[in-house]
Amino acid sequence: MDLGDLLKRVQNWDKLAIAKLITLAEEGVELPLETQRRSHVIGVTGPPGAGKSTLIYSMARKIPQDRKIAILAIDPSSPFTGGSFMGNRIRMQELTSRPNIYIRSMATRGIHGGLNYATTAAINVLEYAGADYIFLETVGAGQSDTDVKYVADTILVLVPPLSGDEIQALKSGLMEIGDIYVVSKSDNQIAESTYRDLMSMIDMMKEVKSGSWKPIVVKASGLYGYGIDDLIKVIDDRFRELMSNGKLNEALISRRALEMRLYAYDLLEKSLSERKDLVKDVVNGRLSPQEAARRLLNAGKPRLDHVAIAVKNLDTAIEKFRKLGLRVGEPMIIEEQGVKVVMVWLSNTRIELLEPLNPGSNVARFLESKGEGIHHIALEVDDLDEFIKRARGAGLIITDAPSRGAEGIVTFIHPRSLNGVLLELVKHHVLNE
Ligand SMILES: Nc1nc2c(ncn2[C@@H]2O[C@H](COP(=O)(O)OP(=O)(O)OP(=O)(O)O)[C@@H](O)[C@H]2O)c(=O)[nH]1
Ligand SMILES: [Mg+2]
Fold this sequence. Notes:
Elements: H1 3-11, H2 15-26, E1 40-45, H3 52-62, E2 69-74, H4 85-96, E3 101-106, H5 117-128, E4 133-137, H6 143-151, E5 154-159, H7 164-169, H8 172-176, E6 180-183, H9 191-206, E7 216-219, H10 228-244, H11 247-274, H12 276-283, H13 289-297, E8 303-310, H14 314-323, E9 327-328, E10 332-334, E11 339-345, E12 350-356, H15 362-370, E13 373-380, H16 384-393, E14 403-404, E15 408-413, E16 423-428
Parallel strand pairs: 1-4, 1-5, 2-3, 2-4, 5-6, 6-7, 8-12, 13-16
Antiparallel strand pairs: 8-13, 9-11, 10-11, 11-12, 14-15, 15-16
Bound molecules: guanosine-5'-triphosphate and magnesium ion.
């Protein structure tokens, strides 16, 4: 089946297709999905055995069947610990048979115990599929909670019936991230005092927590279905508020940024293992760790931004580069420079293909006198003015005052003053500038 068909089936909430697409994402297949906000992503966290799974299943059973629900269990505890597994599995099987409910557990962890990129990719797939609710179960421990803040619109913290001292002893990180606190297993007698302790704790926190949403404390029992309708109502109120105040789109930005960060960590780990030589140089004192880090990331400047090739016919040139298996961008017309350009993306730099727009242009004259070939080399610099000063100091000729190019401010060093090479200097636009 091709990807287009698969995506269409995913958008029709075909559960098999959803599973297939998430598997592809887990395998690292690149899926440039455009995500429109429509799902309420709800992180459910709390200490091991707090009743998270039971509560989620109980809510899923009560949410109207015309709503689409996805449940992602992240880092589920081993099936062989605790007595909870069999009971959960029976409840889970009952839910998976409903067409509106999709359940998946994701056993993989990211580095430092945080979320794995597969999780964020799965959330994107599920939102794309049109889920109304996406429940994300994580064990309340360490990095995965910090990460959940970046992907969830709402965080439910489950606190089982505990004594006041035990609540104090809960990891402080866990007690600060909640939008909704649930005293779980509220069929238990101690639940009432846990509720009171939590209320007074939250009251103190309300003064410091900014924003219009004030954390709420709810009592519920997933096992006996008590308090579940109220909890669903609180969750839905919260979603309406997030939709009306624009927070839903802010959350999308932080989710996609986390996703990039997770992929970047992955690449970083890979390059670290391939560049043992850099570590050795740091150990020997030949390189500072800062410089080694820049080299590892290829982040030092000036860097080679692109090599430009003048061509007579852009379309036939594009064809050739495509056949080489390279990723070719969209052609752009740049009136100011009299050219039509397209970028060919390589991992560390780009090739720019230039076709003249009119016979009088610089590139047209180049083609006439020299024929097709390398037209210029472009360096990306941090401080354009400083670089120009240095070039002038070295007796090089700057052709024009810096002006706006396609992606930033550019100027050129004349080939006559630099061994026959036209050198473009570019300072990229900063996002939102
Ligand atoms: N009395 C009572 N027991 C509950 C309730 N909810 C869950 N339990 C029990 O608590 C145990 C743990 O429940 P789970 O729902 O698996 O808890 P969890 O937080 O998902 O556990 P982990 O994923 O292992 O961290 C099971 O034995 C459940 O039957 C409840 O509302 N009341
Ligand atoms: Mg669980």
